[in-house]
Amino acid sequence: MSRRTGSMGDILALLSLRGWAIVVFAFIFAPIVSMAAFSFNADRFPSLPWAGFSLTWYEQVFADPMIRRGLVNSLVVALAVAPLSTAIGFLAAYVDYRFQFFGKRLYMALASLPPTVPVVIMGVAMLTFQGRIGLSGTLFGIIAAHVVISAPFAMVLIRMRLADLGTDIEAAAWNLGAGPWATLREVVIPFCAPAILASIFITAAVSFDEFMIAWFISGQNETLPVRVLALLQGQVSPRINAIGTLVFTTSMLLVILAQALTFRSKAGRR
Amino acid sequence: MSKTHASYRADKRRFAVLIGAPSLIWQLVFFLLPLLFLVMMTFWSVRNFRLQPDFTLANWKMILNAGFFQSAYLYTFAISIFAAAVAAVAAFPVAYLISFRLAPAAQRMLIGLLVIPFFTSLPVRVYSMQIFFSPSGLINSVLAGLGLSPVTVLNTPVGALVGYLTLTIPLVILLQIFALNGVDRQLVEAAYNLRCGKFKTVISIIIPSARVGLVVSFALAFVFAFGDYISPQFLGGSNPPTLSILMADQVKSGNHWPRASVVAMTMIFTLMAMMGILLKFAYGRSAK
Amino acid sequence: MSVTILELDGVSKSFDKQSAVSDVSISVQKGEFIALMGPSGCGKTTTLRMIAGLEAPTEGQIRIWGRDVSQDAPWRRDTPLVWQSYALFPFMSVRRNVEFGLKQRGMIAKDRAEKADEWLARMGIAAFAERMPHQLSGGQRQRVALARALATEPELLLLDEPLSALDPHLKVSMQTELVRLHRELGITFVCVTHSHSEAFAMADRVVIMDKGTVQQVGAPQQIHRRADNRFVAEFLGASNILEVEVESVDASVVTAVSAIGRLSTPTPTNMPVQVGGALSMVVAMDRVEITKSPSGAVNQVSGRIAMLEVMGASITAIVETEGGVTLRSQLSSRDMESNPLTVGDTVVASWDPASAYFVAH
Question: Is the complex ipTM more than 0.95?
């Protein structure tokens, strides 16, 4: 114990570590805090001191038909992407859990690698390909692309849950007369339910936030983040802060829900 | 009798195929096929602003020989390496503090905080940075208040760097924390016990033990920076342009998809080569 | 009146060319309690899993009621298993766990809830029907696992190390309960265990396995009287095994030389014995008598008490003989009272020739 009280140098080192951590956290969170703060600022030009509380920018956001359309498109896309990518991710996770076969590494690579390809390349690839098959500019085109990049997240989340499924549990179901489909439906899916719900929220958040691929392929059907990008190219507009804050709040709610669900399932398992 | 055996095996096989198919089909059609199509596209030609299937090396020759491509390539590569290095060095003390020096509750809370940026739109965060660093923005006001001369960050490589760090630092810290959490605490205790100082322990025990994770975090930071479009465009002012900007321009305004595809291919090759080298470096020496 | 319910006929199983079970043939009568016993890795659990259909035999046939089921899917058989880990469905209540098998058989909700409650009551855990498995103790989980397996009213119940995860004090009561259950239900139990005390206490017949093959099959008494080979004698543990060389053989008596002198036993009928042959002689520990002075009969060895191991009501005297071989004698506490022994005593160990027998090396 006495060793741990440390010397003057140790205390100084710890202090400077903490100081540096504060600087880095400030760098990370200042833009987020500023976004939220200036979204309620009455002044058009974001400068200090604060010009007073106002909901002007939120009103403007909701009054703008293009933003409204973007929001609707984003919601439609996210609502489709979440269940689709969760289903696909679940099946891929179950394949990894249950089967051994030739080429499994390749199969799993295909199921997990998409998020590591730079989105700008994905965007161009999707645009050229989807343009060729008449899919670009459609909401389904965006959904297809978003499922590609969100399914791996669902896969990882659900795979982690499956790792906790006791090795005998599935066999016990077979032993009691349940075939593979019945076992999947009545044992594996209920067991994974918390992770499945969590992945529905996470994939929805991933899709709702994705701007680069959508920017390339959305065409006339802009999603909300694509609209933000368009606004960003124009002049200074606090509406960006308002949208950002709305998107942030939505995403965080989804993530917190997902967290709460995984946490509750862990507590339940004891 | 043998028929029921055969049908049981067939059932099992059909079950496996039906379970395995959706992910395979979706990723083949909407992920692999577009990427392969992009490869093919590099050999196509554009005549009268129209794409034509072809087999020409003209796009490759044109892009690889173009001065604007070469300088953009070198610039993108250099600034991405630099950004990844800065991110790794800046993040390490924070990751070390969180992993080794804080109570578990504080550790969990800070990890939770670090997840937030992933769900906060990057363009919006970049917009905030634009405001901070604008000529009459917060940073310059503070500098003026201190009697210092204003700094120009926007539309310079430093601006792009700010963006890259905004993008990568939370990720790098998180990955470094996971890497450091994997370090055998007994090893560290043993080092202290042998009167190895804290700083020396970090250098000679902790960093070597966590090398794989640390290298992976650096590699991913590089990957993210190398492919990022938002930072060099909106904070760097595409001055000079990066490969991602070149690509987007070729597609969005030039409408020259084959050339954009060539740029994409050079990016993919570079990323694969870098990942290969870095992973070899990460795992290679650990055998000895 | 015995009817064969289950037959294993030359069953072998190998995993990646590694043999786990080879050429196992067992025939189980309806209503029997069979224990599969052996050290870990002997293939007993693989054999059980093959009966349940969780592994397919590489060779041989498994017949239930005379029908070959070896390649049938596990869900097409009626061979419920009580798992060592219990394998209760963690997200289902106790009642829904018990209902599971009935649901798969298409029973309607009301009937299966009734049936489940009936079995829970029978197992004495009716009060826990609404609980989740993780809220139960080990013994309670075991009962749920039994109720779940029995709810479909099978004719054959498989048990994989049913007592190994229980606390020692629960083991004995659960052991009694399993025997009672077996008697009441009149169905066939096939139980895997590594403990011979469990196997011998519960089973009508015991199958001893080692390295994937059957070493001996028989009633506990019979195996205890006479091990078929050295492995079984060693595995059961309660015997002295002496290396001997046969000196003479006649119609009724074999005389053999060992490190502790000349020993004799009746001539075995089940194995050839040749003069000069090297064999192992097995003498059960509870057959070795200890006296203070020699009586002049055969099979007497003098030595010194090296140690006294007290195990509850029985005491094992460890006698170091002059030949350097250690003999163990199991004595009751009554023996000890009538003939007190202390460490260091010079004694004579002896046994009735008829109680010793030979096994091959």
Answer: no
